[in-house]
Amino acid sequence: MKKIGIDARLYFQTGVGTYLRNLLHYLPKILPNFIQIFVYVLSKDLEHIDFSESHFVIRGVDAPWHTLKEQIVFYRALMQDQLDLMHFTYFSYPILYKQPFIATIHDVTPFLYKTGKASTHNPFVYEMKHLAFAHVLGAQVKHAKKIITPTVWVKNQIIEMYGRQYADTIQSIPEGVSFEFMQATENSSLKSKFVKPFFLYVGNFYPHKNVERLIKAYKIYSHLDGAKKQEDQLRLILVGPDNMFAQKLKEKVEHEKIEGVQFIHDSTIKDLIFFYKHAQALINPSLSEGFGLPLLEATYFGCPVIASDIPVFHEILDDQYISFDPENIGDIVEKLRVASCELRVANNKLKTIVDRFSFEKMTKNVVQLYNNECE
């Protein structure tokens, strides 16, 4: 029996959490009988996670990511279990761990776009933490037997950052639409609350997400003669976490008296399905991404996508979306104007894109890596 560990400490988070929940959802159906899986979750999450599969062992560790406990407590837990292979699903990991492991690196954006002035940390403390994170990522790239990235774009970024000697170590395995969306239905009760048509943004509000520029573009769009004459002017719905970055954007909207912008926090899967199904278009102005799950989710529900002209988005959607220069407010305004037409009908062919992506296929490829590295 081979013992493989999976770092699932971010199980209930967005982004990496979606990756983990889908990997662990499909894994029991695909996993060979000779592999036993050790799933490491935060101790506080133990009571909320239940895997009934006999060859799954759940370990609670009091070791959050980016902490000293991660380097000591998590390291000790891994060493005690004497794993044949460990799968770190995030760049933060115990750097003293030198046993065989593979790593999933979802994105290198945090190392290319610092939060900088938007951070609450003292500038010196922030810079020290950023350097520490960069050191951890470098160690992971150097020591991993295999590295998984969600796109070829992220693979190429890692090669550019660390050298071509790692090219054969990195394998691009695309993600997909979460089973959680496939099994849920829309929250139809929202129909009475969102009667007027709207643009939609789904994601975080970090600076590199470029939402501030989107808001500026929306302000200009909303004052265009054509837009002002519309009886039901399209609003801008921004769905994401209520954090410091969101608060700064809210203050800007309030200070500049921008009407038609609404922030939505703590949305459920059912809420998101409603928004995707009824939005005029999903708008994503990001400057950098590792993948782009909201683009696929929107496409799955037939929602047209208008997004940044960046390589990773073209890798996912080809040219089947309307692109704009994310640093050109005038270009964003123009695409919003275009999107105010019957875009949903014209772009329903976008839905065929999702057939190329699947978390189940992803899991099969990950299991193949497990098999190869455990031989």
UniProtKB/TrEMBL annotation:
<dbReference type="GO" id="GO:0016757">
    <property type="term" value="F:glycosyltransferase activity"/>
</dbReference>
<feature type="domain" description="Glycosyltransferase subfamily 4-like N-terminal">
    <location>
        <begin position="15"/>
        <end position="179"/>
    </location>
</feature>
<dbReference type="Pfam" id="PF00534">
    <property type="entry name" value="Glycos_transf_1"/>
</dbReference>
<feature type="domain" description="Glycosyl transferase family 1">
    <location>
        <begin position="196"/>
        <end position="337"/>
    </location>
</feature>
<dbReference type="InterPro" id="IPR001296">
    <property type="entry name" value="Glyco_trans_1"/>
</dbReference>
<dbReference type="Pfam" id="PF13439">
    <property type="entry name" value="Glyco_transf_4"/>
</dbReference>
<dbReference type="InterPro" id="IPR028098">
    <property type="entry name" value="Glyco_trans_4-like_N"/>
</dbReference>
<keyword id="KW-0808">Transferase</keyword>
<protein>
    <submittedName>
        <fullName>Glycosyl transferase group 1</fullName>
    </submittedName>
</protein>
<dbReference type="GO" id="GO:0009103">
    <property type="term" value="P:lipopolysaccharide biosynthetic process"/>
</dbReference>
